[in-house]
Amino acid sequence: xxxxxxxxxxxxxxxxxxxxxxxxxxxxxxxxxxxxxxxxxxxxxxxxxxxxxxxxxxxxxxxxxxxxxxxxxxxxxxxxxxxxxxxxxxxxxxxxxxxxxxxxxxxxxxxxxxxxxxxxxxxxxxxxxxxxxxxxxxxxxxxxxxxxxxxxxxxxxxxxxxxxxxxxxxxxxxxxxxxxxxxxxxxxxxxxxxxxxxxxxxxxxxxxxxxxxxxxxxxxxxxxxxxxxxxxxxxxxxxxxx
Length: 242
What we know:
Blueprint: E1 8-11, H1 17-28, E2 32-37, H2 40-53, E3 60-64, H3 70-84, E4 89-92, H4 107-135, E5 138-142, H5 155-175, E6 181-187, H6 209-221, E7 230-233
Parallel strand pairs: 1-2, 1-4, 2-3, 4-5, 5-6, 6-7
Helix pairs in contact: 1-2, 1-6, 3-4, 4-5
């Protein structure tokens, strides 16, 4: 994209982890940002925190939205358009995981993972596709290396992320004729609160949330003739390699 300053990005699940890191990176580059959370209080609190941290008052809002509900995602997109007048970038980041043997995984856990990680990605683009066609914008999904590498105890998470990877690649083929760019990023271990982790010095070997923010900026700044449609990114030296 030419001249990122003033572009508008919507980030689902933007109050912590990867979403938070991406929001901070975009604000520091002069973009306007909408972050969503299922909690209105969390969305407002983190939006205020990021505005102060990046000296971006007036450039970020928090919106309550549930990616599992298409109408909720449509309302988030409408709020972005009403507040900032356009929508140029959508980052489908919201996700969760339940892990365990198929013998123990419940149907409720399965539904929570699929509805959030996969259906939520579908809802995010369905709600925003018209706006992105107008802006010739960019749709980015956060998949995982678990979207290409399966493991025991990961049936629900693997299914959701394999789905996100395939879904995003198909959407890329659907939308490139409109000038809309579509990519999926597949991170390995990232230092976040995911799955009960508490980020600390022990996570120094992992990908950091600001690294994903920098990667997304690189994608946005890339010459529009080139599209990295599927990006795998992993820690350079995990503990097992030392």
